[in-house]
Structure formats: C-alpha cells, structure tokens
C-alpha cells in the first residue's frame, strides 16, 4: 500500500509539473506569435522576437513548438488568429481586462463569458472598464548580477526615453509611451542591459482590494481564465487582501 501511495504522490507531482510546464510553453507560444506578427518572423530584424526565442530556449521549449508559433504569425498552415480584448467585472465589482488570441471568436467569447459567470462576475461591453487602465510600454530588468543602483538606472532610463522607473528588491520596472517601447528597449540593450520582459501592458490607474468574502471566487475566476488556451493575459485593477496573498 505504501508503494502505491508513493507512486501516486510522485505521479501527482509529475502531473502538476507537466501542467506548469505546459502553461509556460503556452504563454511563450502566444508571445512568439504576437511579436512575430507585429515585427516580422525573422529574428535578425526583430529584436523582440529574439528575446522571446531566448526565453523559449531557457525554458527548454521544443524547437518545433517555436517554429509552429512563428508559422502561425506568417499565415502558414491556413489558421488565422486575431487578438481580442474582453472587459468585465469580477466578484465585488473588481475590474478585469482579458487579452485573447483566437482563431474562433465565438468559442472564445463564450468561454470567457462563462468563466465570469461561474465566479460571480459578468462580462462587460467595450469601454466598460478600459478607462481604469493606461496602455504602457513595460520593461523588466532583473537586478541579480546587475551592478547598478536606482539613481544610475534612472539616469539610463531617462536618457533612453523612458517615462518612469519603479525599483524592487529583485528587479527594475520601466514604463514608456507604447510608441516609444522599441526605441527605449533598443537603447537599453545597446547599453548592455539584458531585458527579462518587454511588452505593451494595460496598467491600472488605481487598484482596489478584493473583499475578503470574495477572494475564493476571485482567484477561481483568474484560474479559469488563465487555464483557457486562448487567453494571453489578464490585467487586473484589483489586489488581494494581505492575509490572502
């Protein structure tokens, strides 16, 4: 019996690891598609695509998965994907924006609407919550192994054309005008910085706390949305209470 329990535990851990790895590959695939669609499928002329391909290699993502994502962006294989943003209200009136990449709008809209409904929320109309967010260029540089203090980083960010810098123990986060993202990114890379993230994000103007009695519903909604293969990203104008983090 103990041997069976041990096998069951090991299998459970393996399944959890496989699921986590699958989600990582899924996110990288979507990012590869997005940047290849925006800047072209050739890494030599698309720095952002090179960055995503480096992430794929670091995650041990199979080469055929990388090629398939880039081929989708090039229209190879016939499937046509488009990005769609959905807006809605989560439990307690929390505001959420969901960015999806889909080849079937009806399927995706139905699944996202159901996710909100399952967890005490509702899908809204275009513009219902987007006014609570700013569209920003978003760059992350990890501080590990980086010999640069906040003042020095700020000087380089301003020189590169960035708008703002936030400093955390493990990373620098840089915000830019979306139209200036490529320029700022390229400038920082020329200075020798290795970027962990470089993308356009919806940044909440204000963040409200999820009511304590709605935390389980709220996290359930996020889980269901993130488990959807069509969902690329979920932007939140909300935060969990400290005891639930």
UniProtKB/TrEMBL annotation:
Residues 81-236 form the TACO1/YebC-like second and third domain. Keywords: Cytoplasm, DNA-binding, Transcription, Transcription regulation. It comes from the Bacteria. Residues 5-75 form the TACO1/YebC-like N-terminal domain. Residues 1-23 are annotated as: Disordered. One of its GO terms (cellular component) is cytosol. Gene3D superfamilies: 1.10.10.200, 3.30.70.980. One of its GO terms (biological process) is regulation of DNA-templated transcription. It is found in: Cytoplasm. Its main location: cytoplasm. It holds the Pfam family TACO1_YebC_N. InterPro entries: Integrase-like_N, TACO1_YebC-like_2nd/3rd_dom, TACO1_YebC_N, Transcrip_reg_TACO1-like, Transcrip_reg_TACO1-like_dom3, YebC-like. GO terms for molecular function: DNA binding. Belongs to the TACO1 family. NCBIfam families: PRK00110.1, PRK12378.1, YebC/PmpR family DNA-binding transcriptional regulator. This is Probable transcriptional regulatory protein WR164_06780. It comes from Philodulcilactobacillus myokoensis.
């Amino acid at each position: 019996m103990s041997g069976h329990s041990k096998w069951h535990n090991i299998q459970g851990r393996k399944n959890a690891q496989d699921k986590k790895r699958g989600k990582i590959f899924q996110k990288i695939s979507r990012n590869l598609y997005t940047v290849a669609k925006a800047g072209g499928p050739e890494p030599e002329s698309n720095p952002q695509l090179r960055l995503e391909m480096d992430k794929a290699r670091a995650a041990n993502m199979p080469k055929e998965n990388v090629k398939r994502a880039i081929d989708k962006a090039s229209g190879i294989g016939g499937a046509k994907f488009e990005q769609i943003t959905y807006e809605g209200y989560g439990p307690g009136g929390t505001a959420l924006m969901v960015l999806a990449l889909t080849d079937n709008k009806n399927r995706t809209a139905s699944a996202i609407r159901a996710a909100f409904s399952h967890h005490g929320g509702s899908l809204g109309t275009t513009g219902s919550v987007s006014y609570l967010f700013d569209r920003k260029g978003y760059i992350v540089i990890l501080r590990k192994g980086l010999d640069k203090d906040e003042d020095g980083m700020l000087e380089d960010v301003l020189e590169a054309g960035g708008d703002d810098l936030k400093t955390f123990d493990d990373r620098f986060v840089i915000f830019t005008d979306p139209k200036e993202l490529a320029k700022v990114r390229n400038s920082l890379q020329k200075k020798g910085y290795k970027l962990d993230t470089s993308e356009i994000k919806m940044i909440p103007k204000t963040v409200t706390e999820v009511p304590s009695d709605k935390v389980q519903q709220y996290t359930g909604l996020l889980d269901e949305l993130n488990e959807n293969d069509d969902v690329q990203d979920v932007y939140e104008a909300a935060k969990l209470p400290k005891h639930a983090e």
